[in-house]
Amino acid sequence: MAAGEILEVTATDPGSVADFDSFCRATGNVLLEQDHSDGTFRYRIERKA
């Protein structure tokens, strides 16, 4: 992915909340949005340079 592109991920694992938070902090990417409804977790992550 190029810098500035946005990745949208869906997951069903409740542990993904901590995983994606840690991933973004470790890589410098930005967690733009996270949402949870009906057992599905959705994340929008912006790729940084």
SSE topology:
Layout: E1 6-11, H1 16-27, E2 30-37, E3 40-46
Antiparallel strand pairs: 1-3, 2-3
Domain UPF0033: 1-47
InterPro entries: TusA-like, TusA-like_sf
Pfam family, one: TusA
Mean of the pLDDT scores? 97
Oligomer: single chain
**Helical proportion, percent range:** 10-25%
**Tally of contiguous helical segments:** 1
InterPro entries: TusA-like, TusA-like_sf
Protein name: UPF0033 domain-containing protein
Organism: Altererythrobacter epoxidivorans
Domain UPF0033: 1-47
Can you describe this structure?
The protein has 49 residues and is α+β, with helices and mostly antiparallel strands. It has one domain. Helix content is 24%, strand content 43%. It has 1 helix and 3 strands, in the order βαββ. The protein has a 3-stranded antiparallel sheet, covered by helices on one side. The radius of gyration is 11 Å and the shape is globular. The model has no long low-confidence stretch (mean pLDDT 97). InterPro entries: TusA-like, TusA-like_sf. This is UPF0033 domain-containing protein.
How would you describe this structure in keywords?
49 residues; alpha+beta; three-stranded antiparallel sheet
Question: What would you say about this model in short?
Answer:
24% of the residues lie in helices and 43% in strands.
